[in-house]
## 1
Amino acid sequence: MAPVRVISSGKRYQTAPIIWMSFFLAGGTSPVALAKVVDKTLAIVNGEAILLSEFERTANPVVDQFQRVTPVASQSPERLKELKKRLLEQMVDDKLLSQEAKKRKIKVGKGELEDGIKKVRERFQNEDEFQSELRKEGLTAAQFDQRIQDQLAVMKLIDQEIKSKVPTPTEADAKALFAKLQPLLNAKSLSPPPDPTQASKTEEDSLRVLAHRIRQEFGERVRARHILLRLDPKASLVDRTAVKRRIEDLKKRLDRGEDFAELAQRYSEDPGSRERGGDLGSFGRGDMVPPFEAIAFKLAVGQVSQPVETEFGYHIIKIEEKKAARKTAFTDLQDPLREYLFQEHARDRFETWMASLRKSATLKINDVE
């Protein structure tokens, strides 16, 4: 994810059905291999330990991303500790789910396992890259296969316990939701929604989050590239001047006709877009921080901005495509609204079910630094 996007550290990573499947298909390899040496125990779940070593293998990539995409001023020790706490809670839930799948003796067929392994291995360009990842995770090939089998078993468990028991929303359900959304969709302006990664406390909160998503999708959109040179908001005048001079030099090179994508690949400090030549994809209003967004929506297609300063540093923006706003009709939204209702009901059922698993489990969870 590009660092200019407006995001937060977010709620602990729920293992709701769609989240779990997205994690698996994206290639997540749950690093729960047994540690080769005894290290600190962070939690005990029904007699099974979660070790510091495996927690770090899971948490470090998430923490690294948080530090890359979150403005420095927002990276307080308290916020980082809360993120780690939620990641540990998620690992506890994952362990409970795995134990429950084994308790119910859920089977994964040979064909299902082979297909699952294939999907994960397809992420890697070659065998050497795959083997390198296994070594990094401390897994043998057999342990990797077992992890995939365990994940597939949990996915089947969730399908049985959640997906199969949630009624399919009807067209009437979708129309009722659409009617509730109309005042928000037709309003000239909409107050910022609560953080969508946090649990909404009221129906109004949920409706505002959904309305913002729809307005972003159907509103004016642009596709842009950018070159980012990072700058700490607390940087000294000397450092600030040096970074500004570098971004101005890059703008001069662009003005002389050098290729934007090539310069982005060579010089941009946004790991989320650099390899794609700075391509940020399509975004709507509210997706980016205000200074970036204000310039992006003013520029014409093909136009390149002057250097733009945000809390992440200095950017140069190029607009590749613009799309005008579209009217929101029920016919366009019926299927997404029904899917939204299904996911909301599934999430509610999943949380209730997970609460019952936690209540009946023997848990000991230590503080994480």
## 2
Amino acid sequence: MTISFELKSTDGAARRGRISTAHGMINTPAFMPVGTAGTVKAMHPDSVALTGAQIILGNTYHLMLRPGAEQVAALGGLHKFMNWPGPILTDSGGFQVMSLADLRTIDEQGVVFKSHLDGSRHHLTPERAIEIQHLLDATITMVLDECTPFPATEDEAEHSMMRSMRWAERCKQAFVARPGYGLFGIVQGSVYPKLRQRSVTQLATTGFDGYAVGGLAVGEGQAAMLEVLEATLPSLPKDRPRYLMGVGRPSDIVGAVRRGIDMFDCVMPTRSGRTGQAFVRGGTLNIRNARHAGAEEPLDTACRCPACRGHSRAYLHHLFKANEMLGPMLLTWHNLQHYQDLMAELRQAIEAGRFEEVARRWEAAEQPEGPG
């Protein structure tokens, strides 16, 4: 037995489910805060849990470079190392390695790259990617794939996709199955529906515990992303979780849930929190703007996070203007709470058969605040 997925209810193509793992349950649709290097930036693990997050994401590339997978294993694994007892999904590092265009070479065996930290040389193969994630004790392991750049011609996308499919088979062979742990395949094929279908067929034949849709949120735009999902998701196994990698804004998430996605991750809420952008029920606002200097109201009256329960916009504005670290901490907590509140509302709406009503409300509210 690996991880299990129970589909509890649907509303149209939107799905409400539950994933059972060795490290606990995950209610879906779920958003995974990004803890790239063994920490969700500016957040204590207990604070992450208080937002409602049940699973977080770690990254093979960053952890293999520092402090090293063997070191993490010697210290009891990533859960113990970072004091997060819940499920952890680890990105295989493929996206980060592929982004090192000037520092890597790729062939059928894998990728040779130079560390962005010290220039040291590393060879990441499908087998080594699986080994690293095993050493980290990842609850959900991702196959190593080649993240196809955008734009790409259909021939380029096909060549890249087929290599990813061969790597996926090698990852499946290298993965050590054990109760409550799982391995996810990654669908590739850029914006070409026929290639996406071929990728789905190949992955389903190999057989995985879950299926991710990769190679999106790389510049193609929301409309193209949603078109790819519409062409891809109906063919994926219905009894396995579906994960859209690296997405995104609340409207992206709503649109993807509408089409049948179960899991998400994105750096946006944490990165935005550190730079002064807050997600609120009316869209987004920049707390650095002068209009907030004397504002006594909270960021969002509907939010229960510490930033909203205990502080005014004026105070948060002051913290950022004074470069006080508490400002990014509070805004990060707020943004993660906002995302978890979104996921909770979507789950409840699917159960109640009110998904479209709730989804339209969230989509209509996404308006950015202007400068000033």
## 3
Amino acid sequence: MQPLPSPLSSLAVAVQLGGVHAGPEQTLTHVAGLDQDHPGRLVFSTKSQGGQGCVLVSQTVPGTHIVVPDPKGAFIQLLEQVFGDGRPPAGRHPSAIAPDGIPASVHLGPHAVVEASAVLHEGVVIGAGAIIGAGCQIGAGTWIHPKVVLYPGVVVGKDCQIHAGSVLGGPGFGLHPGPNGLSPIPHIGRLVLGNGVHVGANCTVDRAFISETTLGDGVMLDNQVHVGHNCRIGDGSIIAAQTGLSGSVTLDKGVILAGQVGVVDHVHIGAQAQVGAGSGVMRDVPAGRAVLGSPADLRVRTLRRWAGWLKG
């Protein structure tokens, strides 16, 4: 349960959300979960459950409530309007190091470092201790959180979020055998992120060998995701925590990879395909296919196989 910055009338909330108010007007002092019953709470229910305070629901329930088509979506909308996103104001901390000419709307946190040839557009936030390498380009409204590292030449689109501790554009893990053993391959390509990309905390996304590693518009990476060199991730794809992509993996538009998925190099996963948690993907996955297991196979076939093992 979290207190609201100031009390709200349930009638005012209904108007703000475009919902239909029913029951006595309530003074709302907190946002809460369904298990936190409180007379001043605002809560949402997807199961048409009532209670004290005021409940956002999709159909009528006992007590004070507001009927909206999408209760959770309306609740999120209200949270964004009331609490904001916590974005710090524009300005440069005295300890930040950055070239002249950066827009006045940019925020530079304590000990942030921006190399001289980097380009920051309007409204960019660079968090404390973040390092923006030479030749990087960061689009308008993008928020780089504390201790993020962008290696030289990384391109980040508009309205992206790069969370704390992530490292973008480091060299890929390429080795070449020679007379003196294995030698690292120089990676002279770059990393390009589209608009509205979300990168969680402590992720690593490698630059390409020669061309580009790319994350399309609206790509969402959870925490602790690794994307290898030369990967191409299509618009709107979602990758959950602790998933790793080897080099030169291609994900088409709208792919979903659940947690702890491993994908071997040069695999292609088609549009809207889904890979279940803990799977090992060792061959191409056709568009729209749902796979599971290691090695990954049709989800329904894997579940039947597992059911047989349990019966045995």
## 4
Amino acid sequence: MKVGLLVVAYEASATLEAVLHRIPDEVRSALSVILVCDDASTDDTFQVGMRMKQARPDLPLEVIRRPVNLGYGGNQKAGYHWMIDHGVDVVVLLHGDGQYAPEFLPQMLQPIVSGQADVVFGSRMLERGAALRGGMPKYKFAGNKILTFLQNRLAGVRLSEWHSGYRAYSVRSLAGVGFELNADYYDFDTQIILQMVATRQRIVEIPIPTFYGDELSRVNGIRYAWRILRHTLQWKLSR
């Protein structure tokens, strides 16, 4: 399979280099492309990516700087379209701020590569208490659990977490849903889960460690909760 890694990055100049260095050797050798998508950062994220491309020829790096900020969801949309257009078979989403551990890329890929799944979600909630030990604030932990419970009830599934950004998709599953119609905000991640559920994709969750980085500070919690519950309820009513 042709495997791609999509690294979404915004204001990630302090972390991007370390994230790329942490990609395990066994995954690096299997990757066809690592697409770093700088979402019009005001810092040196793009320059860091280009320096890494020169310094690490063993990494199949392609570095793109968006001329305007597309938003978290919009950056994913453009990246997934790039992967589809370039004939990639499997794509893993990784954040450039180090919030999700590159060391778990083998576990993220294995269920799809082995033919056991179409979609893999990294979950911070599968192991009891792990999220809190990893630094997730208690009020955010409670909010995550409540929102996940409500969304599971509405969507008729039993996921342990709807709100992790560590995901892997077969490109065939991506191409079969209208992800380009989704929001450009953080609720993109909920919308694409609903699309995968609606099209009966095989979803597998794996446990991942929790690291509470700076990216989540950019999310307005009330706005986010309202939007994802609205999307899920609309999806339920439309079914």
